[in-house]
C-alpha cells in the first residue's frame, strides 16, 4: 500500500530545464548556481589553468614592482610657463584691486573736503555780502570825508578824429604769384568794407 502522504512530483526534473519563471531577473550568483546544476560551465572555466612556471612568476612580480614605482615624469615647459603666467596675472589683479581701493579712499577724502569747502564758501559769501553793504560803504566814505561829485565836477572829453586802427605789413616782392594774389584779395576786402 501506498502511504497517504505522497511527495508532490516535480513536473520537470530533467537537467537543463528551468523550473521557475524565466521572466524574472537573475542575479550573478543564482545564474552561476543554475549553470553548475545544469552542467554548463562558464567559458573561462572550461580550460584548466596550467601551473605557472618560476620564470613567469618572477616576471609577474617584476611587473608588479615596476608598476608600484612610478617613474619620474618630465616637467612640461608650457605648463610651467602657464603657471607663472597665471601667477603674474593674479598678482596684477591684486595690485589693481589695491590701486582701486586707494583711489576710492582718495575719492571719499576729496568728497569730505568738498563738503567742508562748500560750508566755508557759504560763510565767506555771507561775510563778503556784509562787507559790501551799500549803507555801510556810504557811512565809511562819509566818515573819511568823501562826498558824491556834483554835475560841475564831471567833464566829458571828445577827440576830433574817428577811432580807427591801421595795420602795416612788410613789403612784398612783386614777382611772386602769391604776393599778387594776396594784393588782389586785400583790395577786394578793402572795397567790401
Between the first and last Cα atoms, what is the distance in angstroms? 158 Å
Structural class: mainly alpha
Mean pLDDT: 77
**How many β-strands, per DSSP?**
0
Pick out the low-confidence regions. Answer: none
Element string (H = helix, E = strand): HHHHH
Helix content range of the residues, please?
Answer: 55-70%
Q: How many separate helices?
A: 5
Radius of gyration equals 58 Å
Our estimate of the beta-strand percent is under 5%
What global shape is seen? elongated
Largest sheet: none
Task: Outline the secondary-structure elements.
Layout: H1 28-38, H2 54-68, H3 77-131, H4 134-143, H5 177-192
Structure write-up:
The chain has 193 residues and is mainly alpha-helical. It has a domain at 77-138. Helices cover 55% and strands 0% of the residues. It is built from five helices and no strands. It has helices at residues 28-38, 54-68, 77-131, 134-143, 177-192. It starts with 27 loop residues before the first helix and ends with a helix.
Amino acid at each position: 500500500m501506498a502511504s497517504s502522504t505522497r511527495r508532490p512530483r516535480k513536473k520537470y526534473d530533467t537537467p537543463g530545464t528551468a523550473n521557475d519563471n524565466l521572466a524574472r531577473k537573475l542575479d550573478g550568483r543564482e545564474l552561476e548556481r543554475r549553470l553548475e546544476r545544469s552542467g554548463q560551465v562558464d567559458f573561462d572555466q572550461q580550460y584548466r589553468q596550467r601551473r605557472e612556471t618560476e620564470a613567469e612568476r618572477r616576471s609577474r612580480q617584476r611587473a608588479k614592482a615596476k608598476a608600484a614605482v612610478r617613474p619620474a615624469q618630465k616637467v612640461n615647459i608650457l605648463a610651467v610657463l602657464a603657471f607663472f603666467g597665471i601667477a603674474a596675472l593674479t598678482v596684477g589683479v591684486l595690485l589693481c584691486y589695491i590701486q582701486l581701493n586707494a583711489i576710492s579712499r582718495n575719492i571719499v577724502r576729496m568728497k569730505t573736503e568738498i563738503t567742508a569747502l562748500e560750508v566755508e564758501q557759504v560763510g565767506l559769501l555771507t561775510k563778503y555780502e556784509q562787507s559790501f553793504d551799500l549803507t555801510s560803504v556810504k557811512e565809511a566814505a562819509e566818515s573819511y570825508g568823501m562826498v558824491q561829485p556834483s554835475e560841475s565836477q564831471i567833464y566829458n572829453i571828445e577827440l576830433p578824429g574817428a577811432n580807427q586802427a591801421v595795420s602795416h605789413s612788410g613789403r612784398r616782392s612783386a614777382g611772386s604769384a602769391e604776393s599778387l594774389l594776396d594784393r588782389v584779395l586785400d583790395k577786394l576786402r578793402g572795397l567790401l568794407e
